[in-house]
């Protein structure tokens, strides 16, 4: 294996899910829902297969899907040309990799916010670039907030791009307008490209509001906005994602994408187009139900002895294991399936500074209520 990929031989999600399966544990590690998406979307995919949508779709994506994606961004007053400013990808994962491969030269630096989703570090390594991390900091109420001074300090002469994920996996932080304005200011000042990962754009709770970074002044021309269908429509296995942005930046990402997979997900593309156009009421119900699930799991974790950090979005809650007498979340996560029958993910694996994060573990709440209840009951054995 080439040295630059040696740190990435496995993923925590694959390992924890394998351990959960082996031990029969309730899997609150890997974030995927255990119920299906809207039935109209599922039947559209089945119909597409029956109707012969089984060959390569067009390179940039099915026109109806690109149009639906552009229309979906109009709710933010954003106007993308479906033909030149929208690219369909194999999930957000390929979108992120394509943006980096198309726009970042080897030796360039890319800023990532720590803790970061695992594919960011690997994709930066694939591009031969270097990552610079800026850590989120817990505020007195437990919310993880952007460290603006840290961000400014991370910029150097080789910094080319910043990857911004909001709503944020794994912390559940939804960046405020002030935090995004801080990022925008730095991007404009240093002429950076912003790559935003908005896969949880619909999964925001209470009064939190998802604000795309591209809507801030000076950002539309330098931002590639990424999202995907998996989290919005409970279809994480379909891997239909997309990039929206200025035509030249999208073309640059497409240059890389066309040689990674060329195209993907033929019969799922019309189904996601249908869902974007017709299933937003379903998504609103999903959001409400996930908010209840977040509360259910947060209450249960607190009752079991964890200190729970607030989560304003995503599928995830972070919990501090120290009140239970543990110091190392990774060790706990490796023991937990065997000992009590629950799987979770240690947040330190998403960081370059594991000791700063070793007391935090991530639990996914995108599961049926009875599954969450069973996990909570089992976690009580820890106390
Ligand atoms: N970004 C984040 C923050 C995620 O949590 C995930 C995983 N679910 C992805 C990207 C990958 O999305 P996709 O499955 O569409 O490739
Ligand atoms: N995004 C999901 C998570 O954070 C899992 C994706 C994966 O397994 N790669 O849990």
From TrEMBL:
Pfam families reported for this sequence: Aminotran_1_2
Domain Aminotransferase class I/classII large: residue ranges: 26-379
UniProt keyword Oxidoreductase, yes or no: no
InterPro entries, per the entry: Aminotransferase_I/II_large, Kynurenine-oxoglutarate_AT, PyrdxlP-dep_Trfase, PyrdxlP-dep_Trfase_major, PyrdxlP-dep_Trfase_small
Keywords noted in UniProt: Aminotransferase, Pyridoxal phosphate, Transferase
Organism superkingdom: Bacteria
Cofactor requirement: pyridoxal 5'-phosphate
GO molecular function (one): kynurenine-oxoglutarate transaminase activity
GO cellular component: cytoplasm
NCBIfam families xrefs: PRK07777.1
Family affiliation: Belongs to the class-I pyridoxal-phosphate-dependent aminotransferase family.
Record-given protein name: Succinyldiaminopimelate aminotransferase
Species the sequence originates in: Tamaricihabitans halophyticus
């Amino acid at each position: 294996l080439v040295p630059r990929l040696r740190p990435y031989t496995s993923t925590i999600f694959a390992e924890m899910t394998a351990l959960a399966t082996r031990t029969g544990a309730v899997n609150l590690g890997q974030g995927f829902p255990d119920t299906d998406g809207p039935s109209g979307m599922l039947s559209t995919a089945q119909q597409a297969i029956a109707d012969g949508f089984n060959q390569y779709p067009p390179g940039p994506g099915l026109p109806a899907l690109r149009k639906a994606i552009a229309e979906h961004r109009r709710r933010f007053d954003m106007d993308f040309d479906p033909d030149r400013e929208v690219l369909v990808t194999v999930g957000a994962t390929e979108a992120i990799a394509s943006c980096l491969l198309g726009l970042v030269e080897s030796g360039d630096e890319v800023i990532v916010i720590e803790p970061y989703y695992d594919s960011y570090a690997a994709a930066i390594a694939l591009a031969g670039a270097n990552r610079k991390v800026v850590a989120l900091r817990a505020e007195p109420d437990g919310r993880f907030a952007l460290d603006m001074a840290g961000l400014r300090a991370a910029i150097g002469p080789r910094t080319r791009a910043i990857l911004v994920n909001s709503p944020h996996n794994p912390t559940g932080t939804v960046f405020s307008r002030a935090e995004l304005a801080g990022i925008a200011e730095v991007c404009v000042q240093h002429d950076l490209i912003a790559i935003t990962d908005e896969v949880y754009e619909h999964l925001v709770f209470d009064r939190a509001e998802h604000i795309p970074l591209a809507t801030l002044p000076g950002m539309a021309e330098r931002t590639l906005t990424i999202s995907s269908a998996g989290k919005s429509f409970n279809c994480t296995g379909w891997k239909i994602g997309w990039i929206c942005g200025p035509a030249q930046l999208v073309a640059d990402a497409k240059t890389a994408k066309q040689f990674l997979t060329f195209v993907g997900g033929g019969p799922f593309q019309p189904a996601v187009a249908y869902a974007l156009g017709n299933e937003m009421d379903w998504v609103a119900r999903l959001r409400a139900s996930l908010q209840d699930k977040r509360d259910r799991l947060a209450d249960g974790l607190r009752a079991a002895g964890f200190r729970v950090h607030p989560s304003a979005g995503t599928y995830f809650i972070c919990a501090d294991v120290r009140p239970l007498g543990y110091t190392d979340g990774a060790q706990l996560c490796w023991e937990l399936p065997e000992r009590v029958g629950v799987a979770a993910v240690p947040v330190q694996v998403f960081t370059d500074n594991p000791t700063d994060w070793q007391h935090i573990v991530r639990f996914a709440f995108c599961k049926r209520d009875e599954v969450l209840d069973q996990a909570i009951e089992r976690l009580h054995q820890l106390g």
